[in-house]
Amino acid sequence: MQHQKLATIEDVAALAGVSIATVSRAINEPTKVADETRRKVTEAIARTGYTTNAMARSLRMRRSNMILILAPDVGDPNFSNILVGLETEASKRGYGVLIGNTQNDASRETDYLRFISSNQADGLILFTGHLPYGFGQDGNEGRLPPMVAVNEPVPDADVPFVGVDNFEGARIATEHLISQGHRRIAFVGRSAAREVNRLREEGYRKALAGAGIAVDPRMIIDGDGTTESGRAAAELMFVRDVLPTAFFCVNDATALGVIISLNARHYDLPRQFSIMGFDDISFSSFVTPSLTTMKQPRHRIGEAAMELLLELLAGEKPHEQQVLLRAELIVRNSVTRVG
Q1: Count of CB atoms situated within 10 Å of the CB of 29
Q2: Chain segment 195-239, per-residue pLDDT in tens
Q3: Is 162 helix (H, G, I), strand (E, B) or coil?
Q4: Residue 35: half-sphere exposure toward Cβ, Cα within 13 Å
Q5: pLDDT of res. 325
Q6: What is the largest CA-CA distance in the chain?
Q7: Can you spell out the DSSP letters for 182-226?
Q8: Which of 66, 91, 69 is CA-nearest to residue 148?
């Protein structure tokens, strides 16, 4: 039986008419190679079968070229666009992604981590806001794989983070309401459990202080970021009989709940109450009134997070431990001037 000789990177380089270094760059850093050169290398790889050999070599090196993404809720409106950014950047660098929908269940999270322990995934993207269960406890930090937190930072842990600048975005949102004459502004979404909510509340407080407006504790309402929590918060304001002229909601889902409550009471929005959201998820432009909000650069968040993780996987020191991207004010119809 005649055995076919395994193709080498030298074979690919010779067939494509380029150097071995160029072939390596085309495989590992394709964005740094001209389109025509990359096309020649890709064709040469296909003709020689070198791709198959590269995969086999990857297995021998106990590398999978796969990234595990742990998310508590893949139905989160922010998740899908961030995922597109993650996948886009991973694909450019020859990586694929696995998605673990943990549903905030520790046992499900532990089950998904088998991809790490069995070398089926090389690194982690965390949307959970905490270190993965089963890693980093009982002094076993040495077993932690390279990881990057997205959207929710991991408190008290040396985990690089990529997300929107929640403090600055909330400050800008509140300042926009103040610029429209509002001085009685409710904050809906206080939460001791979520760092994102805490930062957005701090941004709200900073804007009020900058305008010389005292914080009224009765205007700050707890919330878990759901539509129901927004509806309940608006109802609570009526029970307290302390009404704002504007609601700044911790996210768009909460803002929707506030709008539902106020519409049910037949208020004329935004003439009687203004509502500001945060995130700019898909429905924000379709509710009545259309929602003024802060837009997260979700696609770029995903790209930046994957770039950072791949730096770690390459053994490089992260260029930044924390990457905060700026939110953009999107003005629609839910905020109007008062006074």
Answers
A1: 12
A2: 999 999 999 999 999 999 999 999 999 999 999 999 999 999 999
A3: strand
A4: 0
A5: 98
A6: 90
A7: ---EEEEEE-SS-HHHHHHHHHHHHHHHHTTPPP-GGGEEE--SS
A8: 69
- Is the pLDDT at 2 greater than 50, yes or no? no
Give the pLDDT confidence score for residue 236 in this predicted structure. Answer: 94
Rounded Cα distance, 113 and 109, in Å: 6
Give the residues across from 276 on adjacent strands.
248, 292
Binned at pLDDT 50, 70 and 90, residue 306 comes out as: very high
Which residue from 252, 259, 312 is spatially nearest to 282, judged by alpha carbons?
252
What contacts 128, CB < 8 A, 6 or more positions away? 70, 71, 72, 102, 109, 152
Question: Mapping DSSP to helix (H, G, I), strand (E, B) and coil, where does residue 168 land?
Answer: helix
Place of tokens 């037949």: 266
Contact 334, 289 (CB under 8 A): yes
pLDDT over 80 (residue 28): no
Q: For residue 8, what are the CA distances in angstroms to 15, 25, 28, 40, 92?
A: 11, 15, 16, 16, 22
Summarised one tens digit per residue, pLDDT across range 167-195 is 999 999 999 999 999 999 999 999 988 89
The residues, ordered by sequence, that sit 6+ positions from 310 with a Cβ below 8 Å of its Cβ are 89, 90, 93, 95
